[in-house]
């Protein structure tokens, strides 16, 4: 089961857990209130997993690729790690399925506080278009993930502030309807 918590304000290494003291865990229900959805799948059979195929069909995730993030596999590794950790949003949902390794997705809550979501092998997550978020590896410095898209992939990240985008306004409207 996925684990999520409110982050501390430390400027220490981004790859550390950064748990508030005392801890403030975040439930799947709380994540869903932000539009974040989660599945636990069997990553050992991702190539022919009927559960993954069912989700892909239901959500219309018709395009996918696999990315390995580690020093030996990702060109311009240091630059990419910094880029992934910049707070940003996308105009489309971000769907990631961890096939091996682990890392963190950080998302903003309704009060603009950071929630850290620990992702490991078998975890699949959808971050809604318009949510401010970022990604980092954990201290293992390795993750292999499937990236899924509805239609052709769009790789553009818009760093904060990006409140002028219509999708950001739609996301904020979604949050107020959940209140």
UniProtKB/TrEMBL annotation:
Binding site for Fe(2+): 88, 90, 94, 133
Record's protein name: Acireductone dioxygenase
Binding residues annotated for Ni(2+), in chain numbering: 88, 90, 94, 133
Main localization, broad class: membrane
Co-factor(s): Fe(2+); Ni(2+)
Similarity remark: Belongs to the acireductone dioxygenase (ARD) family.
Coiled coil location: none
Molecular-function GO terms, alphabetical: acireductone dioxygenase (Ni2+-requiring) activity; acireductone dioxygenase [iron(II)-requiring] activity; iron ion binding; nickel cation binding
